[in-house]
Amino acid sequence: MKKPRKMKKILIANRGEIALRIMRTVKEMSLQAAVVYEKPDSESYPIRQADEAILIGDGPRKDYLDIDRIIWAARRCHADAVHPGYGFLSENPDLPEACERAGIVFIGPPAHVIRNLGDKVTARGIMEKADLPFIPGTANLPAGEAGIREAIAFAERVGYPVMLKASMGGGGRGIRKIVNETDLASQVPSARAEARSAFNNESVYVEKCIEAPRHVEIQILADGHGRIIHLGSRDCSIQRRHQKLLEIAPADLPGDVLDAMYAKAIEGARAAGYVNAGTVEFLVDSQTNAFWFMEMNTRLQVEHTVTEELTGVDIVRQQIKIAEGHALDIPEERVRLFGKAVQVRINAEDPKNNFLPEGGKRLEVYQSAGGPGVRLDGAVYQGYKIPTDYDSLMVKMTIRGYDWEQTIQRLKRALSGFLVVGPKTTIPFYLAICDEPDFVAGRFDTSYLDSHRDIFDYPDEEREVARLTRLIAEIHAKKGNPFAY
User: Fold this and answer.
1) For the chain, N or C: smaller number of CB within 10 Å?
2) Which secondary-structure segment (H or E) carries 433?
3) Element (H, E) at 17
4) CA–CA distance from 198 to each of 114, 174, 389 (Å)?
5) Phi and psi at residue 143, in whole multiples of 5°?
């Protein structure tokens, strides 16, 4: 057994709230935190908080994904390790390979594991051998007309609708619902082109569509000594365009169903040779609670905070310790999920306009919420300009209560405690959800937004306090009251 390697400095190869969140744990562990940044991010909060910030290019976006630049930055600051956070770079197996060549520790799973699980068809083969339940699906479709014929034949066997998916897709990208043969024949070529553009791999496959399922995921931790544990479940069913908006822990499922999912998640991770933090995702039939393996995410999830709040386990700390070579020291009896937690992603977006980003607008006033059971993970501040080149996430808010009723009450109170003047946000949208009867009763699945369009009818009126705050901001800016006579 190798002796654990003590790190001194970690390079965080990401931006925004996740860079800051990782940095906080790094500093708690008495390690140094370095970050990379592109020129459009020169005003970002993480570079103000880091021990060292390294400019890696003009951007936007491309330099954050440039592995050569990340390795260059790690060498320049003499980092022992690289933490990629989440996103495209974290799912690229070329990064851990480049780190290994450079003698730098990669905080995440091995390259071959990322590669195998990143290809949905290869992952399916691994999980089938581990006896995980599966939705019927094809292998990667052959090129040209042969692929279209195979897709149509499969759909005729299992019935429409079916899902056409990019084999290397992720984060809700590269997924299309197909309702008939004509649609399938026309969509296969365009899906290939989209996959090639987005993932540099045009492989696609077809899967039976499960109508209105629940999306439930199991957080796992695996060390390099053969121990794998779970940290409970999360329900991520409320989504827009296959991307999660709101996450709840634990999932409201019978205990025997959750136990079966936990066991299958651990079996799947073991079959894949998994090491570090990961998430095994399942689709669950809303009526029968039957479940099927969907995919395994080989990185830290955006929604990891709800699990941390319920278990008291710092997942980033565990990632670092596993990467150093330590064995997991979390006893099984410690993993108890007390109460209920929910995370909402407060974005600078207009939900009524198909969640159109509000990039380019400045936060004239920004006052965040607080109080019991409230956790904020963000990287914005008053005066910050919402970037047009990056995602619109401002802050993740995680709420914990002793039961679902109190958690919703706290969520409403905390959402109402935000004061944001400048961009439109998702806050009033979430407030509307808090009053929706099915949500209050815990009844939701992946069709929730489509079947509850009335939640988009929330009032547009600006609160009086926001008007007053805007006036105060103008008084300070103009050194006088613009409405005084």
Assistant:
1) C
2) helix 427-434
3) helix 16-28
4) 17, 8, 17
5) -70, 160
Q: Return the closest-CA partner of residue 61 out of 194, 198, 245.
A: 198
CATH of the domain at 44: 3.40.50.20
Long-range contacts of 130-135 (CB under 8 A, 24+ apart): 130/264, 130/267, 130/268, 130/270, 130/271, 131/267, 132/264, 132/267, 132/268, 132/293, 133/264, 133/290, 133/291, 133/292, 133/293, 134/292, 134/293, 135/207, 135/208, 135/210, 135/283, 135/292, 135/294
101 and 176 both lie in a single domain: no
> What does the pLDDT look like over 243-287, one tens digit per residue?
899 999 999 999 999 999 999 999 999 999 999 999 999 999 998
Q: Are 91 and 299 in contact (CB under 8 A)?
A: yes
**Could you tell me if residue 384 is inside a domain?**
yes
DSSP state of 114: H
Q: Domain residues for 362?
A: 214-464
Q: How much is the pLDDT for 481?
A: 60
List of E strands, 211-327: 214-222, 228-240, 243-249, 276-284, 291-297
CATH of the domain at 149: 3.30.1490.20
Q: What is the pLDDT of residues 183-239, one digit of tens each?
A: 999 999 999 998 998 888 999 999 999 888 999 999 999 999 999 999 999 999 999
Q: Return the residue matching tokens 């977006």.
A: 349
Task: Note the pLDDT tens digit of each residue in 449-471.
Answer: 999 999 999 987 565 556 666 66
Give the SS3 label for residue 176.
strand
Count of the separate structural domains present in the chain: 3
Active site residue 336: no
Phi, psi torsion values for 362, nearest 5 degrees:
-100, 145
Please compute the mean of the pLDDT values over residues 109-114 and round it to a whole number.
98
**What is the distance between the alpha carbons of residues 464 and 448, in angstroms, rounded to a whole number?**
32
Of 159, 189, 208, the position where a domain reaches its end is: 208
Q: Which of 21, 15, 9, 149 shows the shortest CA–CA distance to 81?
A: 9
The pLDDT tens digits of the residues spanning 360-404 come to 999 999 999 999 999 999 999 999 999 999 999 999 999 999 999
The sign of the dihedral angle between the CA atoms of 28, 31, 37, 42 is: positive
Contacting residues for 103 by C-beta, under 8 A, at least 6 apart: none
